[in-house]
Predict the structure.
Amino acid sequence: MLHFGQFSLNDSRLRTTSRPTPPPAPLPADSLAYALLLAARSVTAVIGGSNLPEALAAHVREAAATRAAVQELAYGALRRYGQGDALLARLIERPLAKVEPRALLLCALHRLETRPEAQHTVVDQAVEAAGHLARGAFRGLVNGVLRNYLRRRDELLAALDAAGDEARHWHPAWWLARLRAAYPDAWEGIAAAGNGLPPMALRVNRRRGTRDDYLARLVAAGIGARAVGDVGILLDRPQPVDALPGFFDGLASVQDAGAQRAAGLLDLAAGQRVLDACAAPGGKAAHILETADVALTALEADARRAGRIGETLDRLGLAAAVRVADARDVDAWWDGRPFDRILADVPCSASGVVRRHPDAKWLRREADIAGFARTQRQILDALWPTLAPGGKLLYATCSVFPQENGELVARFVASATQATLLAEERLLPQGDHDGFYYALLQKAC
């Protein structure tokens, strides 16, 4: 049974006493009510254990007119779930018997905070959406809770200061405790960054043009942007990819500026044999191939995700040997020829990119961190023998938790044969980039 805060999927202590109404007419496909309804169903699926991209894909497949609004509502509700959960605890005396009305209220509360000028419309449209849940049995509840919130908003928000860390910082208490222990002077800023909207950065394909040329194309298209890193561009505001000049011709890729650090740290040169050990969806693999003429093997355990590597490379006009295999099962994929460079972009908690994956905050459990660390060490142990003498391995995560990063690398270097730590880089999430960790290891000759 999955618990989100104080809410349990199996809780049935409250039964609505409202009289059900006949099935309502379908909601207009471009209405806020329809967007709220689909967002509520997506959030309900996440509470049930699905990840948010899968939940959204299942519920907006036929909703092109409102897809962006559904995504914004669902992501926003989950970003501020800690706050929303605390507010509903004060607005509803007992837990609801059904998940969907609670999810609808969470989405509506998010909308009220981000669009206060339209509060009456939000309430009315949320009530319309509620008419499509349990044959309208929750219309009165949704109307009453939201109007009560608007009357008591200042009082309720002020009370959150005494409601605990989850309500104030929108993260699970265990997550915040780990941040506080690792970054005593910066943990609040890390949490705040994790609650914000992520930046949108591009990587220019240097095989098809220069960054200056692409910046000029963006200016001509009316898209504000500035240079970041070696080949990166940071957009003033996120854009759909079909608005980006030459995107489908392979001129640029969407990639966080922090993630773009990997290819440069690898110290690539023409003719090297390179392994990207956990390659999907292919962004870092493509950056490696854009940087130098190397023979790249891209490895991915998930066959479906491995398909995305090929799609990425095809769009950019690049080629690599894509293999579907678990990096830890070396006998299944390695031909015995050592690699000059290895990128081990290992599975992790995603705590550095949580603003892009707000569901991760609530789906993760503290015990998962130790599980990720075990997998990460197993991958390192398996890959090290495949690295050539004098070769370099870049260990990478999108986590900010030391147990997955510096602590793990220090133990590996202390126990591994002929391993030296050449460089270590910690990027905490901020305005220009997400949170990443990099450790460059070299094997003695």
